[in-house]
Design a protein that fits this description.
Layout (H helix, E strand, L loop, with lengths): L1 E2 L11 H13 L9 H21 L7 E4 L2 H12 L5 E5 L4 H9 L3 E5 L6 H11 L5 E5 L11 H11 L3 E4 L11 H4 L3 E5 L11 E5 L36 H17 L1 H19 L5 E4 L10 E6 L4 H10 L2 E2 L1 E3 L4 H7 L6 E5 L6 H19 L1
Parallel strand pairs: 1-11, 3-4, 3-5, 5-6, 6-7
Antiparallel strand pairs: 2-8, 7-8, 9-10, 10-13, 12-13
Helix pairs in contact: 1-8, 2-8, 3-4, 9-12, 10-12
Length: 376
Amino acid sequence: MIYLDSAATSLQKPRAVGEAMLRALRTMASPGRGGHTPAHLAAGAAYSCREALAELFKVTEPENIVFTMNATHALNIALASLVSPGDRVVVSGWEHNAVTRTLRMLGAEIDAVRTPLFDTQAALEGFARRLPGASCCVCTQVSNVFGFILPVEGIARLCRERGLPFVLDASQGAGALEIDAAGLGAAFIAMPGHKGLLGPQGTGVLICGGGATVPIMAGGTGSASREQTMPYCLPDRLEAGTHNIPGIAGLLAGARYIQKRGVESIGRHERRLARALGEQLRSVPGLEVFLAADERAQAGVLSVRHSEIGCEELGAALSALGVCVRAGLHCAPYAHESAGTLETGTVRLSVSPFNTPQEIRRIPALMERAITIARA
């Protein structure tokens, strides 16, 4: 099997992730729910994970690291804290449904900055034109469909200059691209644990920039139990209920692996593989490859489509040959509308730190076989 669907979930993980989860299942209870050793071990794992993530993303206070179920959960908290019905919210034309559906649910007016694929300068200019008068700005760091790296540092700067809260969806960038939370000055940064951070499903992270936060769940926190409102302090204010301690322990192991190998090294490896893959697939007849002219504008995510074969059929044929990809709209119709692929979708191939050049070299021949199978 060649796994090329890490933009959805990182299947290949460091061995330490599974070991940490199993150890947590056997030895840890719930933080703040007892004075015994299993509760203390759980509290220590949770705080160590906050510390590791704070170091990784240059967050000054580990308490501003909030654990969530996934990036979607984190984005819902962030946007509920900032957006009221009727607010005009500026977003990129490459957003995931986790952003756009949440804004619709909150009654916001979505103002999408639609620019050509891989054109970072056009994106900056588009945001500069649309931000005046807006209530908030949300931008993905990397398109989950095309791997387009948005100029989020410049967009964040534009927001700071205008006093606008900025929310970063780092779902495809965390673990592979540098994120300086303090330098960005973002109100919130949301990310999943199960993608580039190499943790398990059911984990996510919300980095809070220090402004007001609105809980979207209420319940026990293990603190301030006499009060009938959620605690004001972070992270307790946003972490109602029992923590996913095995997941957090696995996420800690994933974060430590990234710290040891290095974000820059991982990102360089992934971009090199995706670049080689895109260049090799250009030789496949009938295949359109969405590859950036400037390699700095694309992360380890690549989309293709065939002129005659539907994406779902092609994806199924690849699966039959042992190549795991994702086909369709990838929960991101805004991105497909911006790129002109809304009616067809794409086949997405996304790499991880554990893919190899040898695997990549096999893909063009397997793609040609899949096309033959799909035509039959």
